[in-house]
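REVIEWER CHECKLIST
Item 1: Sequence provided? yes
Item 2: Single chain? yes
Item 3: Sequence as submitted:
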Amino acid sequence: MVFDPDQDPEEKRAVRQNYRSLTKKIEEHQGNPNDFSTEELLSQVQKADRLFDKVKGPQEATLDSHLLLMASNMGAQKARAMKSGSGAFDVDDFVSKLVQYMGGQKSLEDALPDDSDVEDIPDDRSPLDWDRIGRKVMAKSRRVPVMGFMLGPLSIEQKKRAVTKRSKLEKNKEDERRPQELKEEDISRSQNETTKNVAILEAILTGMDTETVNIFKFVINPNDFAQSVENIFYLSFLIRDGKVAFETREGEPLIYCCEQPKDEDYENGLKKRQMVLEFDMATWKVPQHVFARLTR
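Item 4: Structure as written out by the authors:
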């Protein structure tokens, strides 16, 4: 096959049409291959062989390979459906013919009278010609049959799937702790503590000599980071209620006590504003005198 990009378009169209026609005929019998005889399948393959002489392009070659694949699959299905004989293999008949071929009696039943026993068989019978059957077998194979091929393996051990049981994690009961259950009195006690600490913080700020104070100087405890965070938390309640004002003057954040606004003030245009204050361990570790200088 030689690739010809300048093949006649009409010839290419005819080749594709013929391939599709052959493929369609096989597809119609693909579900039931018994309705499609072996002669018909062979005829389809022979037509594809003759049609292949006109294939000069990759698309037509793809159609040819697809047709051969379908034909081979159908041939395999028909081969699996074939039966070798209507009955099973007759061992007695085979042994009788084998003995007769080696020069013995036609069958064991013919050698015995009707009223005789096996022990009454005369010993003057001619021996079987094993060399004759041996020469016949050597024409097919010179390999000596071994027990592995005759009887299969002597011992067959069935492989069992090893099932591994996953042991559950044993927990030490002494290390188990029950989560703390919150009750209504616990919540009310927490609210009372928050209210108490907010009042203490307000009293400290009111009793200071200066009118304004730097917010960080007021809330930071240089020896306790957790308490500094709590001070900011409590201070946020005072600013939310309007009891403490927060302003920035010349770059310094200041807080001071103020008169709590009334409802009329909010109606006249006063608005509440919120601010997110970032405070981490690195900020808390800054020395007080350096921090005071940076906030100015």
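Item 5: Key structural point noted by reviewer: The beta strands are 213-214, 244-249, 252-257.
Item 6: Recommendation: ____
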